[in-house]
Design brief:
Layout lengths: L1 E5 L10 H11 L6 E4 H7 L2 E3 L11 H19 L8 E5 L6 E5 L3 E3 L6 E4 L4 H7 L5 H18 L13 E4 L2 H9 L7 E3 L18 E5 L8 H14 L4 E5 L15 E5 L3 H8 L5 E4 L9 H8 L4 E4 L13 E4 L3 H11 L2 H18 L2 H18 L3
Helix pairs in contact: 4-5, 7-10, 9-11
Length: 384
Amino acid sequence: MRVLLMSPVAGHDVPGGDVAYTEALLARPPTGVTYTSYVDALAEGSLVERGRRPRHGSISGTDVVVLGARAVELGLRASGLMFRESYRYLTVDPDAFDLMHAHIFAIRLIASDLPLVTSSGFPLSVLYEDRFYWTHRRVIVAAAADRVMSRVVGAEIPWLPPRRASRTMVQSAHYRNRLIEGGAGPDRVAVRTLGIEGRGSTPRNRRPTTVGFVTTTFEQKGGSTVLEAFRRLLAERPDARLVIVGSERGPSPDGLPAESVTWMGMVPRRRLLEEILPAVDVMVLPTHCDSGPPFAILEALQRGIPVVTSDLVWIDEELAGPGVRRVPVDPTLVAAALIDLLDEDTYRRASAAAVALWEARYTMDAVAEQVGATYREALAAGPS
C-alpha cells in the first residue's frame, strides 16, 4: 500500500508533537505500507501544490482560480477573522499512491480521486483559546468562518466532521464523540493513539526523590502549578528535587528554596533521553493544552517513570491506571498525587504499571497496526 503522508516534517514545519508523529510513522510504518512524505513527493513531482505562479511558462486556468481563492482566504486569515493555518491545494499523481493520509493539514484535492484519511489531536479552536489565548468569542467567529470557507473551496479540515475523507483518526474518545455530535458517521471516526519506538525499561526499585517537568511551553503545560505544587510537596518531603527541562528560569513562589529546583533550559534530545530521564523518578505535566498521550509522558512510561498529569478531556482516556495520576490542574491535588507516588511501596508498584501500560498500548508496533487497519478500511470504502 503506497501512502502519501501529508504530515509535518522536521525542518519544514513547526517542531513539536506532530513532527514526532510523522517521524514515528516513517520509522515504523504499518505492515505492508510504504510511506512517502509530502516533502519528498513535492521534490519528485508526484505531488503538486496548486495556486502558485510557475517560474517558467504560462499559468493554468485551474491555478488562476486557486490563486483567487487563496487571495481571499489569506486576506481573511491576515485580518484575524480566521485561524492562521491556510489550506493546501494539491494535485496527486494517480499512479503514484493508493491513499493519502493528511495529519492536521487542511487540504483541497484537485483532479485527484484517491481515498483520503485525516487525523488530528484536537480542534484548532481549542489550540487558539487555550494556548494562544484568543477570546472565546473570537474563536467562535474564526471557527465559523473556517467552516464556511472550507465548504466554499471544498477543503477537508481534519478537526471538522469528515466530508471527503473516508476515515478520520482522533486521539481521544471525547474528540470522537464531539465529531459524531457534529454529524460525522460513527463508522468514519476511529480513536487511534500515539506511540514511540524502543524497548520498555525494567521497573524502578529505589527511593524516589526527583520530580521532572519537561516542556518548552511553560505556562500552557502547567508550569506555575508545578512550582506551587512542588513547594507544598517539600513540606512532606524536604529531600525532594525538581528538574525543569526545556524552559528558561522563571519566578518561583515564595517559600520555594532555589537549591531544590534545577532549571536546565533546552537540552539535546539525546541528553534528555540518555542522561536526564534515567535520573527522574516521577514526571509531572499538569497541562491545560494537549491531546492524545503527550510524548513527554510516553517517554516517561517507557522508562518506568510514573506520571502526574491533568484530567484534560482531550488526553487519551486510556492514559490511566496505577502508573498515571489524572488530577485537575490544582496545586494542592498535584502535590497530593506527587506525595503518594513518592512513597517507596507505592512507587515500586506504579513504576511496574507505567511500563506495562506503555507496552500494552503505546508501542509503535501496536499503534502502527491500528493505523494500518484504518487505511485498509479507507481503501475498502473508496473515495467519498
